[in-house]
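Lay summary. Proteins are chains of building blocks that fold into shapes, and those shapes determine what they do. In this project we predict the shape from the chain. Here is one chain we studied, written as its sequence of building blocks.
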Amino acid sequence: MDNKDVLTLNYDDPRVVAALDAEQRLFDFYGLKAKTRFIQLPNLGIRIRVTEIGSGKPVLIVPGNTGDSFPLAPLMAELKDRHIIILNRPGGGLSEGIDHRKIDLRELAVQTITAVLDAFALDSVPIIGHSIGGHWSLWMAMDRPERVSALILLGVPGNIIGTGPPFALRLLSVPVLNRLLFKLVMPKSPGQSLRGLSFMGHSPEALARLPEAMADCYYYFQKLPNYQISSLSLMGRGNLFGARTEDRINAEQLKRVLQPVMLLWGTNDPFGSVETGREIAEILPSSEFHAIQNGGHLPWLDNPAECGSLSRDFLSGY
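And here is the predicted shape, written in a compact code that computers can read:
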């Protein structure tokens, strides 16, 4: 990738300052003490931001959606006995951004996760992946199996067998229309910034329980200068009829994931039915499946205690 294609950030930019402030307030609310490290991806010229929380046995978290770590704060608060290493995927979480249409997505996933493990001198680690972060984690488990000891997949990974974005999100893959829709759905104030999560299967009651700082994070992170290009280009890799063939994971590929896998699948997740989730679990050689009742695409927002307890029990041996 050419350096001119990397979307850099100025940390003196008021938009960056506002995002950092909102994230700090959210972490404070959940009692999370975070440290930040930046890692340069050697072959891609991208600098990513990594957040560290807690101590104990390490676990790597790969966020979904646009790659921000902050939505996972309620779950991380349930895992304080672990050394949490959470990478902010390129384009999200104040990592540098890219046009995802110009890269090999699988190569980006494996190189990014490998670079983080190398930076922390971790030979093998359990990985928690959400949505496309789960997709990335499955690719890592297949391509670098010696580096992944176990997997937790939060929410529907997407683009696996019969799963994929709902129609409203697929519209964001249509050129020109996607930019118009992006402007229309962008919240006009922090108080409106959680509205989009209702399309992800989350109830008004669950969203009302979230702290104000969560809404602020969604609002200010979406205003970052590299956010629109990175997020829309990621959606642009698919279309109304589905993702590119090379970006999908089929049944034969799933059979190559030999690590123990736990799936936490919200019953209201619009990306895929519970029945499809159970089908995926049956294909994986070593897996367990848990339906999170009334959970949306980010199931820990609806039931952080249940997701935390299941995750702690599963990770206890790794």
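What the prediction tells us: DSSP finds 13 helices and ten strands in the chain.
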